[in-house]
Amino acid sequence: MEFLVASxxxxxxxGGIYLVLRGRTFPxxxxxxxxxxxxxxxxxxxxxxxxxxxxxxxxGITEYTDPLPQALxxxxxxxxxxxxxxVVVLALRTFLxxxxxxxxxxxxxxxxxx
Length: 114
Description:
The N and C termini lie far apart (53 Å). The radius of gyration is 20 Å and the shape is elongated. Helix 1 packs antiparallel against helix 2. Helix content is 63%, strand content 0%. By secondary structure, it is mostly helical.
């Protein structure tokens, strides 16, 4: 199970980095989302992967899952949602101002200027 989770974090990180380095804004937004998913899975896995254990302490239970990584992931989901919304609005504004979706704001040589 640890190998599967580590592989998922690696694939999401690699895909996120690849997409962030693209020249257009939509792949950059997707890359940031992939990277935030990779961080969420990493944080969740940092609390040890225990199966059939309750996340909170109850009477009579000797082993339980650490609730801190779960709280961190919940907070990270909210922050990444807000960050993604902000980046999408900034990308849309840049497209409306410049007329291109290139990250640097310059039109492609093959595209006619509007």
